[in-house]
Amino acid sequence: MWQPAPAPRFSRSAPERPAPAVAIGADTDIVLAEAGFSAEQIARMRTAGTVA
Questions:
Q1: I need a surface site. Which of 21, 37, 45, 46 has the fewest CB within 10 A?
Q2: Can you tell me the distance from the alpha carbon of 22 to that of 30, in angstroms, rounded to the nearest whole number?
Q3: Both ends of the chain: CA-CA distance in Å?
Q4: Which residue ranges make up each domain of the chain?
């Protein structure tokens, strides 16, 4: 016969606080550079309003 086990208790260890979310667009330059765009192309996209 199956018996349920008591739920584990984690009162001795406090959970870590989650880090705040990264601002929208904070990683845009990195992602575009990894996609193969040059720094000049990314700058042109920013001035044209293509990326923010």
A1: 21
A2: 13
A3: 61
A4: 23-52
pLDDT digits (tens, 9 = 90+) for 3-27: 888 888 777 778 788 999 989 989 9
* Residues 13-25: b if buried by 16+ CB within 10 A, e if exposed: eeeeeeeeeeeee
What six digits make up the tokens of 31?
């992602």
Query: Residues 27-34: contacts with CB within 8 Å, 24+ apart?
Result: 28/52
| Coil, strand or helix at 47 | helix
Asked whether the beta carbons of 51 and 45 are under 8 A apart, the reply is yes
Q: What is the rounded distance in angstroms from the CA atom of residue 15 to the CA atom of residue 26?
A: 27
Give this prediction's pTM: 0.58
